[in-house]
Amino acid sequence: WLPSFVELKGRSRPQGRRVLPIERTRGSEILFGVAPCSMALSQARRDLFRLFLKQSVGPQRLVSSELVLQAAARGVPVLHVGRRELDELCGGRVHQGVCLEATPLRYKRMEEDEGSDGESTNRQLLWLVLEQIQDPMNLGALLRSAYFLGVDRVVTSRRNSCPLTPTVSKASSGAMEVFDVYSTDDLRSFLKAKAAEGWEVVGTVSQSETVENVPVISCLEFRWNKPIILVIGSEGDGLSLETQLLCHQMLLIPSGRTLHPGIESLNVSVATGILLHSICSQKLRKVLPLQQQG
Amino acid sequence: WLPSFVELKGRSRPQGRRVLPIERTRGSEILFGVAPCSMALSQARRDLFRLFLKQSVGPQRLVSSELVLQAAARGVPVLHVGRRELDELCGGRVHQGVCLEATPLRYKRMEEDEGSDGESTNRQLLWLVLEQIQDPMNLGALLRSAYFLGVDRVVTSRRNSCPLTPTVSKASSGAMEVFDVYSTDDLRSFLKAKAAEGWEVVGTVSQSETVENVPVISCLEFRWNKPIILVIGSEGDGLSLETQLLCHQMLLIPSGRTLHPGIESLNVSVATGILLHSICSQKLRKVLPLQQQG
């Protein structure tokens, strides 16, 4: 069958003519934006049904040709549609002229993972654990940073975490398409097990928060000498008390001025980026030439 | 006068009854969200007309009482309204039960600024210059980070930059209300003048970009030994060529893995947070006790 909207495409369509809804393959979702669609086409992690492209001119045309080549290589049909059909397909989000119909991505379950047993705990491993991150923009930004900065694994708490939606993929700038994301049903047992294996569990705290029974240090003082799990809580609530109590220490990002009460924290993805970079720089310093000493 | 919607408030209002539009003071705008409204009430930078609050229960009630006290101290009338009136007031944005009618905040003009002449160039000063940041969410996140991390001044290019809207204030978590933001009509002349005064102008570059005639170094190798201007470009386009050529050097955030083509950068506010923290940590290291050496 051919979707009914195809007859409507083109510039000659009269203003105000109704955009007919596009029939979707059962169980599919609509990825939107250049990076998520291009990355999904480059990987074999989703079943792909149709690529929807806006007829484009100018520099956007090059991007389109690239996507058409990728789709051809994967045997994915390409349909040229109007802007309004794309708006409709992705619910008015910023699609940059491209949508892709595909099966959803799911979290990998830590419980089913066989690979980690063989990993030596002597390696400089860094895992990022996300507790109840519900905002898809924050989750996407966190995945993008984790991927870029070299986090070995991201694990989320299954309970109260945002699923791996197309919005998360867009906010991750496509990193979600190439980077496995794990989840666990029982965050507490998972952290306890890793601690027993010799991992260091590190939480975060902002200047206005207090933590009992867990030492707080500046991220500048932190030394990386065993595999680390960095645990991040949600923007509003931070880490749960149960998780805080499983941390060996809490990292604080020092502020550079006296802060007005009520503006005493950073955005969660900015704070996580700073902490990951601060930790990773200890590894990077060893391999980079230092050209500008003194 | 009393706005007409006041008669409509309360839980007894029948479902579906139309929300009458609220008349606005000429030239005012509507701030939304707890942090922007609370910070605006705490400062004398805007004229404030009315505080709109949702009747609240639970923990939100404490926040409301605090806002009512702040409004009383400033002599700002408080109106209790329904959720739908608040939705209408701020165009459906996330208001957290509070809106504030106020005069807009404007950029301070660098050209009118008299203060900087007296500042010694020997101090460890850090200014952040934003070139053509048009996305209000990014601008807000950048202001929040700049404020937290201790940037001495933020300067934007007047041309093609987003104005200081309520959305920017919300994204800055209220930092925009307490932190002066400057703009200049002529970014190039401004950078040239600061360079002539002995400032170091530092740009940024991602791994996939090339820059001619400007040395590129890792942010880990950067040494802070004179007043710095860090120049940031927009997420899509980066710095203009003209601005790049005015930079003494370009900073690169090293990635922690081999990156897939197309996902070779960080979100602009995350990248800026990492660069500012990386620069500031050189100042902070000197004043913090190092408890965990070795």
Summarize the structure in short.
Chain A is an alpha/beta fold.
Could you name the key traits of this structure?
homodimer, 294 residues, alpha/beta, 60s Ribosomal Protein L30, Chain: A, Alpha/beta knot, 2 domains, eight-stranded parallel β-sheet, four-stranded mixed β-sheet, 31% helix, elongated, disordered N terminus, disordered C terminus
- CATH fold-type name of the largest domain in chain A: Alpha/beta knot
The average pLDDT score of chain A comes to 86
Side-by-side strand order of the widest sheet of chain A? 5-8-7-6-11-9-12-10
CATH architecture of the largest domain in chain A: 3-Layer(aba) Sandwich
Biggest interface, CB < 8 A: A-B, 52 and 52 residues
State the low-pLDDT regions of chain A, or none.
1-15, 288-294
**Backbone structural class of chain A:** alpha/beta
Describe this structure in words.
2 copies of one chain form a homodimer. Chain A is α/β, with parallel strands linked by helices and 294 residues long. Chain A folds into 2 domains: 4-102, 60s Ribosomal Protein L30, Chain: A, CATH 3.30.1330.30; 108-287, SPOUT methyltransferase, trefoil knot domain (Alpha/beta knot, 3-Layer(aba) Sandwich), CATH 3.40.1280. Helix content of chain A is 31%, strand content 18%. Chain A has 9 helices and 12 strands. In chain A, α1 (34-42) runs parallel beside α2 (60-74) and α4 (136-149) packs parallel to α9. Chain A is elongated and about 60 Å long. The model of chain A is unreliable at 1-15 and 288-294 (pLDDT under 50). The interface between A and B is large, with 52 and 52 residues.
